[in-house]
Design brief:
ibrinogen binding protein from staphylococcus aureus fold, 6-stranded antiparallel beta sheet, 5-stranded antiparallel beta sheet, 12 helices, 22% strand
């Protein structure tokens, strides 16, 4: 469900049990949408996370670490100046509004007691964090908003702060009769959207989950009464320990809802929200990062395929290279017979083809001798082009094959660190890839060293290693394995190198070989196929061609298993 007014009310109730009266001693800003407050209260340290991301806006206590930038942003420095050392005197919100007011008390540089308010507005794309003084004047905000079109408020320093105007009804102030009159014409498909648009702080997903929990099949007076009572009950319990979060699966995605259930700890909802959104953000960050790298690889594939097409056109042009040599030789051999210097064509006996007549078109503005020179010059030019284009084609095909192996690696990657390793690899091996900070949450590529931690299996007492990327493939094949270990790879299919480490105390039987081949098939592009050919041979027969890309090998003396 969305972080709506009911969740906000429940979170605030839990915060009031632990950080009320606490002193703010740290302020961090890991990203443009996140503020972290370190709070010392009742001899304990708490970390309050405020996020104003449009899709993940929330406020909660957190135990999950977020890396901080080396240079603190301006708003972070501003908060450090104005609220560090201040104590939290109250945490409130009005009705079910997603506007949280944290009242602060502290002493200024003149040792005078001053009051300030940190206001957190959690309203999707309009979310904001605003610090105001005791006169309700804005000191600063994380986002400055200028009201140019009259649709919103000015959120600017030195302006008077005003609460956002929300043209909705408070469900706390109406009875069932009013609730029923507003919704009597709705059906089961539209009821959740209608309630969320009419009432303050109630989200559409919360109503959908409530309808599912209550097993409501149609909308009538009885079902609306049940739904109204349930909503009121959840809201009434939001300040107690009798309400908790329940994780659910909705549309094949993880979600959550509030239910009547005794809490196991007083901060159940805070830490559930913390873990839920932290996992969600990690997944989103991983998917976005992966897609960004895939986009770069896809663009490179298009570029290289276009380059290959142009090379093939050049090679096609060179397919008639010998004919120009022949023209030059025939004209040169018959110059003594040619006396006209303005010929458009000439017919000569082709001694390469049983002296049959061959018609050669000429440039009539130059002599036959110069025409022969032109043919020889074109022959030598095309000969050089053929030589260079052949080398270029081999190089481009190697790069294309390498990029396709990278796509397999990206599809098999499980976390951000593995994507980092892959991106570092392509930066080292593809000149067209510039140093891009695609993932702001990852470490700098220049300072990060690739970790070599291949996947490990154990089969019947034998250790089996599987590379996660091309550099790991090279490492386990040429650095870890010895000449008597056995190497596996899917035949003519991109995949990981698999190495079966020999055991002097045990003989390798056919079942072990089959299991290793199955592992190689599993860690390949053909993992969803059947009857996959897997080659295997001793490490001593696996060689790396000079100057080849990471992961590229040649091998001999192999056998093939179909698994």
């Amino acid at each position: 469900m969305a972080f709506d007014g009911i969740i906000t009310k429940s979170i605030i109730a839990e915060l009031n049990t632990c950080i009320l009266g606490g002193k703010i001693n740290k302020v961090f800003q890991p990203s443009k949408n996140d503020i972290i407050l370190g709070i010392y209260s009742d001899s304990k340290n708490y970390t309050l996370h405020i996020c104003i991301d449009a899709h993940n806006c929330r406020i909660n206590l957190t135990t999950n670490h977020k890396p901080n930038p080396k240079v603190a942003p301006n708003f972070c420095m501003f908060l450090r100046k104005h609220i560090i050392g201040f104590k939290i005197s109250s945490i409130t919100n009005y009705d079910l509004e997603r506007v949280i007011i944290i009242e602060l008390k502290g002493y200024n540089e003149l040792n005078d007691l001053v009051k300030k308010k940190l206001i957190i507005e959690l309203m999707g794309k309009h979310s904001n964090i605003i610090l105001i003084n005791s006169n309700e004047t804005i000191l600063d905000s994380i986002r400055h908003i200028e009201n140019k079109d009259g649709l919103y408020r000015d959120i600017l320093p030195a302006h008077k702060y005003s609460f956002p105007v929300i043209d909705k009804i408070s469900i706390l102030n109406i009875n069932f009769k009013k609730f029923y009159s507003l919704l009597i014409d709705e059906n089961i498909q539209t009821i959740s959207k209608k309630i969320s648009s009419l009432f303050i702080g109630i989200s559409k997903p919360f109503i959908e989950n409530a309808i599912s929990i209550l097993d409501i099949k149609e909308i009538n007076q009885e079902s609306l009464n049940i739904l109204f009572s349930y909503i009121k009950c959840i809201i009434d319990l939001s300040n107690t320990d009798s309400i908790s979060c329940l994780g659910i699966i909705k549309n094949n995605k993880k979600d959550y809802t509030l239910i009547k259930q005794k809490k196991t700890t007083i901060l159940d909802i805070n830490f559930f929200i913390d873990d839920f959104y932290n996992e969600k953000e990690n997944i989103e960050s991983f998917v976005n990062y992966k897609n960004n790298v895939l986009r770069i690889i896809s663009n490179l594939l298009k570029k290289y395929n276009k380059r290959l097409k142009n090379i093939n056109l050049k090679l096609e042009e060179c397919s008639n290279i010998e004919i120009y040599k022949k023209y030059g030789e025939l004209i040169t051999a018959n110059l003594f017979r040619i006396d006209n210097t303005n010929l458009e064509y000439i017919e000569l006996e082709d001694y390469y083809n049983n002296n049959s007549l061959l018609k050669i078109h000429l440039d009539n503005s130059i002599s036959p001798k110069k025409n022969a020179d032109v043919f020889f010059k074109k022959y030598h030019k095309l000969k050089n082009t053929l030589s260079i284009a052949t080398l270029q084609k081999a190089e481009v095909k190697r790069d294309l094959d390498y990029l396709e192996s990278i796509i397999y690696e990206l599809e098999a990657a499980k976390n951000i660190n593995e994507i980092d390793d892959i991106f570092m690899e392509i930066q080292d091996n593809i000149m067209d890839v510039k140093l891009l900070k695609l993932n702001k949450k990852s470490k700098s590529f220049k300072s990060k060293k690739m970790e070599i931690n291949p996947i490990e299996y154990e089969i019947d007492g034998f250790k089996v290693l599987v590379g996660k990327n091309n550099k790991q493939n090279d490492y386990i094949t040429f650095r870890i394995a010895n000449k008597n270990d056995i190497w596996f790879h899917t035949k003519d299919i991109h995949g990981s190198h698999v190495v079966l480490l020999s055991n002097q105390n045990k003989n390798i039987n056919e079942n072990v070989l089959i299991n290793c081949a199955e592992i190689a098939a599993k860690h390949s592009k053909a993992s969803n196929s059947s009857n996959i050919p897997v080659d295997y041979t001793y490490i001593k027969f696996v060689k790396k061609p000079s100057g080849s890309k990471p992961g590229k090998v040649i091998y001999t003396n192999q056998r093939t298993i179909y698994v």
